[in-house]
Amino acid sequence: MTTAEPRLPAPPVTTTDALKAFALLLILVDHIGHFLADDWPILRVIGRLGVPIFFFLIGFARTRDIPWRWLALGMLLTGVDYLWNGTLAATQLNILFNFALIRLALPYLERFLERHILPLMLVLLACVLVMPFINPWLEYGAEGWLFAVLGLMHRKAIADNSTLALRDLAGFVAFAVYAIVEQRDYKFSVPNTALLVLGLAGIAMLLRDFRREDSIFQPPSGLRRALRFCGQHSLEIYAAQIVLLAALGTLWSTHGDNTETGDADD
């Protein structure tokens, strides 16, 4: 007789795992609104809150590798976007290409952004000025770069308290510009705009206090494994939910068209 080896306990959930899982949940709500319930703008408001988190973490991370799967998934999701929109003019390169471009630029930005306000102001101003040229063809365009700069400055501020003011300046510009651009693009009503601003203020406070460490609150083992999986495979989960919801949305639309045709024949 052999005894079964005891199962090792799940590793602890980190704050990064928890933050990525939270962002994935927000983005899932956004994609449900985009593919299945476009007449519920509140879902898009909620979904706007997830994107800054991912760009922030891209800037905060020290790794500069660009995994090949980012580019492969980016091509796949850009194709899904094209099929959903039905026209090339309304199709943007997927956000994963934006992540890759930021990874390429971060080593140069890190050397340029020292402890002085002028280089930071120049970078922030450049991001704002190039938005009309970049945003139409790249998902979240230079808005995402502002949050990546915030993530980078946050990491610097953790290491050196003298850069806290620079971090806060980057955060103010990133969230203010993002709120203005997203309200303009989606034309939210006044109540939904107020909810967007309040939600972004909450995300700003969450990111301001972020530290990469084991989470204080550790859930049961099964949930810990799920959260760790989300943290390690967040972009694959993001891609899978887009493909799945786009397929469901297509089936939903086709079923609706068939129903209307049947009613017309009757």
Percent of residues in helices comes to over 70%
Quaternary structure of the protein = single chain
Major β-sheet profile? none
Shape: globular
Intertermini distance:
70 Å
Written account of the structure:
The chain has one domain (22-250). The chain is 74% helix and 0% strand. The model has no long low-confidence stretch (mean pLDDT 90). The protein has 266 residues and is mostly helical. It contains eleven helices and no strands.
Features:
single chain; 266 residues; mainly alpha
Summarize the structure.
With 266 residues, the protein is mainly α. The protein has helices at 15-35, 41-47, 51-60, 68-85, 95-112, 117-134, 141-159, 164-186, 190-208, 221-232, 234-265.
Write the layout of secondary structure elements.
Layout: H1 15-35, H2 41-47, H3 51-60, H4 68-85, H5 95-112, H6 117-134, H7 141-159, H8 164-186, H9 190-208, H10 221-232, H11 234-265
Helix pairs in contact: 1-2, 1-3, 1-10, 1-11, 2-9, 3-7, 4-5, 4-11, 5-7, 6-7, 6-8, 7-8, 8-9
